[in-house]
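Structure first, sequence second, as always.
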């Protein structure tokens, strides 16, 4: 069957030619300018806040795209989120509204970025334009109509938020040193010249801020709308690289080892086993990066989705694309979608879209991936109600933050059982789960304490709506250790096993 990558908007699929593989398109500019008011305790000094933020930039893998809820970040702070990827892109056309004038208006972005607590790092996207056709970009091209003016804008923007004391935003508290160029260029039809845009933007960013890190626009994940093979996001390597080789790989070949520090690819799907299918894709991507001179590039996943309920997306034949999933399935899937990729070497992960539901408002896939209900669409339990995944994410960060992310040990990945060991200071922590329908017995060895605390990673309720006390929401038990080992039974919920 011939395949053709065509951008679509969740349900509305514009078919051109004969094809079964598409990409869910996400607009480049989403959040209104007025969003974002975050606060931190006044007792925490600015120096301490900056130190915490810097440490998080260097270490924490826990992100969210985006982390804002109802104009504030209290839920993000509560959950332990350390990275915020705004959906409000820093767009040239929004800052230099008159190309015949040298005036820049950063006021909306000053307000937005200035509201993000300094304990949450900002990974910002920068782009020439928000709409496909505009006076800011050439026809059917990512390139700016006036390269000189665009590059001046990029340098001014990066300089304004880099925190080096030169031409900084007034009262800048949260420095931005991670910049991504656009997003999902292989999800823009026949628009060309992305590699050139990446290169010139990279050079402008580095010119203004040599210590800044540049992320290439994330690789979109293709989706099968006909159900010929995968019915949904193409997670198997053959189908994934069929599209990747025809589109995104050409950018890497043209850049030839130059133009970014961090590679980004996006990974969605359902809660069956899609999380584990990232492994062959990741390893093949690493080979491709090495082939084109990017062997030293870090790899992030700035869009990673798991959903609850049943999205309304349908195939061209009218068939539902995604099966119904419970809150518990979503919560467990999100945990696996962090632990498993981190064990492979992926450095940062950002669930999308986003902390609260409500992406396009059409009840599609991306309106079901949030951690908090927005009060709209099917399977919704009420605006502001936290899902089980909210509490699982919080428990995950609470348990694993400050682990040695470069020393995650894979203990078992066989017979449907997955076990990983983390080192958090002097304490060892194991994360384990069972993908089988029946219970499985496992034995953990090498324990250095007399007792361990075992905690189910998903709360003991059907819905987060039933959680009234976070501290008692999870099934836990203390188990004595014999000769440095314990034997436990794994059910359908992942568990944390911590030395006491």
């Amino acid at each position: 069957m011939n395949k053709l990558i065509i951008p679509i908007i969740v349900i509305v699929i514009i078919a051109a030619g004969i094809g079964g593989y598409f990409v869910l398109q996400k607009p480049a500019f989403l959040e209104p300018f007025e969003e974002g008011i975050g606060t931190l305790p006044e007792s925490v000094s600015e120096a301490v806040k900056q130190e915490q933020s810097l440490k998080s930039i260097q270490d924490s893998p826990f992100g969210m795209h985006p982390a804002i809820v109802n104009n504030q970040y209290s839920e993000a702070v509560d959950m332990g989120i350390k990275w915020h990827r705004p959906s409000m892109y820093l767009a040239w056309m929004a800052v230099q509204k008159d190309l015949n004038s040298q005036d820049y208006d950063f006021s909306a972005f000053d307000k937005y970025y200035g509201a993000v607590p300094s304990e949450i790092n900002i990974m910002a996207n920068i782009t020439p334009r928000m709409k496909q056709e505009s006076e800011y970009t050439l026809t059917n091209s990512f390139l700016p109509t006036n390269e000189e003016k665009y590059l001046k804008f990029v340098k001014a923007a990066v300089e304004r938020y880099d925190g080096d004391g030169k031409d900084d935003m007034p009262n800048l508290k949260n420095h931005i040193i991670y910049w991504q160029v656009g997003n999902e260029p292989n999800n823009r039809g026949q628009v060309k010249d992305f590699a050139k845009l990446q290169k010139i933007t990279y050079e402008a960013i580095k010119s203004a801020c040599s210590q800044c890190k540049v992320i290439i626009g994330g690789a979109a994940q293709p989706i099968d709308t006909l159900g010929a093979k995968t019915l949904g996001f193409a997670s198997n390597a053959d189908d994934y690289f069929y599209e990747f080789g025809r589109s995104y790989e050409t950018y890497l070949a043209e850049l030839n080892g130059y133009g970014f520090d961090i590679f980004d690819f996006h990974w969605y799907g359902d809660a069956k086993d899609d999380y584990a299918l990232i492994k062959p894709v990741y390893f093949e991507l690493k080979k491709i990066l090495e082939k084109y001179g990017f062997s030293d590039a870090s790899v992030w996943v700035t869009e990673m989705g798991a959903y609850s309920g049943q999205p309304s997306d349908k195939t061209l034949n009218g068939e539902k694309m995604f099966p119904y999933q419970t809150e518990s399935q979503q919560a467990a899937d999100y945990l696996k979608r962090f632990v498993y990729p981190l064990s492979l070497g992926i450095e940062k992960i950002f669930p999308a879209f986003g902390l609260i539901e409500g992406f396009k408002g059409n009840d599609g896939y991306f309106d079901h991936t949030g951690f908090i209900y927005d009060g709209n669409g099917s399977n919704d339990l009420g605006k502001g109600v936290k899902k089980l995944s909210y509490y699982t994410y919080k428990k995950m960060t609470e348990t694993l933050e400050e682990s040695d992310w470069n020393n995650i040990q894979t203990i078992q990945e066989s017979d449907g059982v997955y076990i990983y060991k983390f080192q958090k200071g002097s304490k060892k922590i194991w994360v384990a789960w069972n993908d089988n329908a029946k219970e499985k017995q496992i034995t953990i060895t090498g324990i250095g304490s007399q007792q361990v605390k075992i905690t189910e990673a998903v709360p003991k309720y059907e819905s987060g709506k039933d959680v009234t006390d976070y501290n008692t929401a999870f099934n836990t038990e203390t188990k004595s250790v014999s000769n440095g080992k314990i034997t436990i039974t794994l059910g359908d919920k992942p568990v944390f096993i911590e030395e006491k």
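Margin note: The chain is about 25% helix and 20% strand.
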